[in-house]
Each structure stands twice: as structure tokens, then as C-alpha cells.
Amino acid sequence: MKKSYDTTAFAKINLFLRVCGKYDNGYHRLYMLMQEVGIGDDILVELDDERDFNIDIESGVDIPKEKDLGYKAAKAFYDALTDKLRSEAKPVPHFPYTFIKETKNVPSQAGLGGGSSDAAAVLQILQQYFDYPFDTDEMTTISSKLGADVPFFLTGGTCICEGVGEIVTPLPDLSGAHIVLVKPSMGVSTGECYALSDEMHELFDEEAYKARMGEVFGNEKLSPVERIKEASKDLINDLQAPAVKLAPVVQTVIEAIKETGACFTAMTGSGSCVFGIYEDEKELDDAVKALGADIRTSGCQIIPSVLI
Asked: How confident is the model at residue 192 (pLDDT cuts 50, 70, 90)?
């Protein structure tokens, strides 16, 4: 019998991203505020237990399927389920033929986590299909091996993410705030950006910073935009300066968005996408019109959205 599942894999922004150091294995130790936004890839998963097991994927991206994060997520899920059942001396069932279709709406090489969100969506669909064989910790373990952003997308909303991204703490949500995303045609290599950040890294008071962010973003008496404005001078992305060196257009776009009256502007993740947050929908609409006519953002994708 064939079963079909569809969902939207929403993108994210980083309101801040602090690089706190490196582990012995070379991975960076991070402290981030991650926030879902209202654009996403459309994910369809079809599971047919009457066909021989295989994982196929259609993404519109010209890469081997084994390199696609949606494919990797499905394979990781099946491998983990096989290991779990064997460790419990239970029979391993016939896994269904699995077809994944990803309709990409989130720009790539943007710092928006599109591929990671796709992976999380596939994991959640398979978890549902198999009647939730994994607990939260097990899902975190599976997802963290796929990428630093994937554990966040299993929770979504507004979260502090620590470690390499696997320690996820939900916060009072920031949903409803209006945002514009501006993606230059030039991307930024995540690996190169982190490597350059190591050379440029400056120490900061981690405990004081965490206390400050917890105080502001835990304050539900303030509206989402008020919380962002209150913390704005301390919202730092440690990858922004390295990304600007690699792709100077990032700074150009930041300046263009600031001039539209955004209450906060920054690059997300390792870039190259830049966002601006606005007080209301009219300010956002005016900003989108201004950016569309600005020569500095010519050739950029300009996407109005909302925090969710």
C-alpha cells in the first residue's frame, strides 16, 4: 500500500551567531538564536511497502542523490532504525520504497538552512510513518549527524541552539514580525567562512552574553519586535565579517536594507542572505519597493516574509 505525506520545510535566520571556540574534533562550538521564517521548500514523501526497498529523490538540483540532505536523512533514519531493532533483538521489517520530492523555494548558499530543513522534514515524516520509534534524544542524535542546523528544525519556532547545534532550547516565540530577505547572486562557502572566522575570532564574555540574551528574549512582556530592538546592539553574527571579506556585496546589501528603515539588519548564518526586520507590514512593503528600485540590490532575490 502506498502512503503519501507532504509538508513545508521552512527556512530560518540567525538573529545572532557566536563562535565560542572549537572542539577537539574540529567542529565549532556555537551559541545561536535561530528563528523560522515563512518561506520554505515543499516536501512530498511517498512510501510504498509493495515495492522493493530503495530511496529515490527528485530535487531539481543537479547533484548525485547521495549528496542530497533529504536522501541522507532517509538513509540515516533507516540505518538507525535497523540498528535499534537489532539491538533490541527485534525483527527488521521490509522497509518501503521511498520517493522524496523536494520543490526548492529557499535560495541555496544563503545561510537560510534550506537543505537542513528538508532533512528534518523527511525525518519527521518517517518518524510518523513508523509510529514514532525514536525518542527526542535519539532523533537529536540522528539529525545532528546530518548538519548543525537539522536539530533546530525538529523543534522550529524560536530557539537558542548550542554545542554544534544539537542543544536546542525553545524560547518565547517571535512570530509575526515582518522581514525582508535579500539574497545576492553570489553565495558564500560555509567552510571558507568558518576558516576565515578562526583567523578573525575575538574572545567575548560568554556567560554575560548568554545572560543578556536570556533576559531579553525571555521577556514576554515585550513584543517580538521590541525584544529584537532591545537586544539589537548585541545581536552579533561572528560569520558576517568573514563573509563580507569573501563576498563584499554582503556589506553593500546590509547598507541598502538599513537605509529602508529596518529596525535590525544582519546577515544570516554564513551568508550570503541578508535580512531586515520591520515594525509593521506597511514598512515592509515600502522597503521591498525601495530595494527593488535600488541599483545596489539589482540581481538579488528580494523576498518579503514573516517570522513564524
From this structure: very high
Last residue of a domain, one of 144, 170, 196: 170
DSSP code of residue 296: G
Distance, in Å, from the CA atom of 150 to the CA atom of 77, rounded to the nearest integer, reads 13
Contacts 24+ apart (CB under 8 A), 300-303: 300/182, 300/183, 300/184, 300/185, 300/253, 301/107, 301/181, 301/182, 301/183, 302/180, 302/181, 302/182, 303/39, 303/180, 303/181, 303/182, 303/183
Rounded Cα distance, 194 and 239, in Å: 7
Residue 87 CA to residue 85 CA, distance in Å, equals: 5
CATH code where residue 80 lies: 3.30.230.10
- The set of catalytic residues is 12, 149
Smallest Cα–Cα separation from 59: which of 1, 105, 25, 19? Answer: 105
Q: What is the largest distance, in Å, between two alpha-carbon atoms of the chain?
A: 64
Which ranges constitute the DSSP H helices of 88-146?
114-129, 136-144
Per-residue pLDDT tens digits for 5-36: 999 999 999 999 999 999 998 899 999 999 99
Q: What's the pLDDT score for residue 201?
A: 82
